[in-house]
Specification:
This protein has 251 residues and is of the alpha/beta class. The protein is built from nine helices and six strands, in the order βααβαβαααβααββα.
């Protein structure tokens, strides 16, 4: 049975400060590291879960989360594939700014339109801005026209789903045939994009989906990759409380 695990990175330094992060590369807090290790214990305790392949974004917080979780689960040796297509949503000119401060400046309605609408991106990051990723060596093989200056969730869906179909699906089929599982360590919005596809969510439903940090979500599929079951590992009430905490971040 093909099996897929999705895990959002643990709390980052900018999560703790309530800043828009997006493509900015920041590390995990000590709490985030603990969340990643706890995710690894959940993976290790799941009966019959045989992780074989890891997919991550190119951002350190997702990579480090995967390293800590897989070390705890005794799976540090997994085959690793990384892609910018699994990066967090690009928050444009909001990057690095405090969410509560932005709410005070533009109003909560405008903030939530930028944060949680499906197809309204924040103001773009200006050309030449030092926050832009154009000169970052990790993106040197990505055509410049594909590097965003801002994104809405629809843009994330458009870049994530081809990666899912072209890279993750072949691993699911190959490893599933041998009893193995695939794990993806990524971000709130890239995982929201994948879950929109896998759960058949509408545009209205997906914008209300909150992804808690550091709690693995497990899918089991039939041979045609239709979902048979889907659930958080561990205590479902803990996962719900963590998702509610994410929802309250904007104040």
């Amino acid at each position: 049975m093909p099996t897929l695990v999705l895990v959002r990175h643990g709390q980052s330094e900018w999560n703790e400060k309530n800043l828009f992060t997006g493509w900015q590369d920041v590390g995990l807090t000590s709490k985030g590291e603990a969340e990643a290790t706890a995710a690894g214990r959940l993976l290790a305790d799941e009966p019959g879960l045989d992780l074989r392949v890891l997919h991550t974004s190119l951002l350190t917080r997702a990579i480090r989360t995967a390293e800590l979780a897989l070390a705890e689960a005794d799976r540090s040796w997994l085959t690793v594939r990384r892609s910018w297509r699994l990066n967090e949503r690009h928050y444009g000119d909001l990057t690095g700014k405090d969410k509560k401060q932005i709410a005070a400046e533009v109003g909560m309605d405008q903030l939530m339109l930028w944060r949680r609408s499906y197809d309204v991106p924040p103001p773009p990051m200006p050309e030449g801005d030092p926050r832009r990723s154009d000169g970052d060596p990790r993106y040197r093989d990505v055509p410049r026209e594909l590097l965003p200056g801002t994104e809405c969730l629809a843009d994330v869906v458009a870049r994530c789903l081809p990666y899912y179909e072209d890279e993750i699906v072949p691993d699911l089929l190959e490893e599933g045939a041998r009893g193995g599982a695939v794990i993806v360590a990524a971000h709130g919005n890239s995982l929201r994009a994948l879950r929109m596809h896998l759960d058949g969510l509408s545009r209205q439903e997906v914008v209300g989906l909150e992804i808690p940090t550091g709690i693995p979500f497990l899918y089991e599929f039939d041979d045609s990759l239709s979902v048979v079951s889907a659930r958080y590992l561990g205590d479902a009430e803990i996962a719900k409380a963590a998702a509610d905490a994410v929802k309250r971040q904007a104040g």
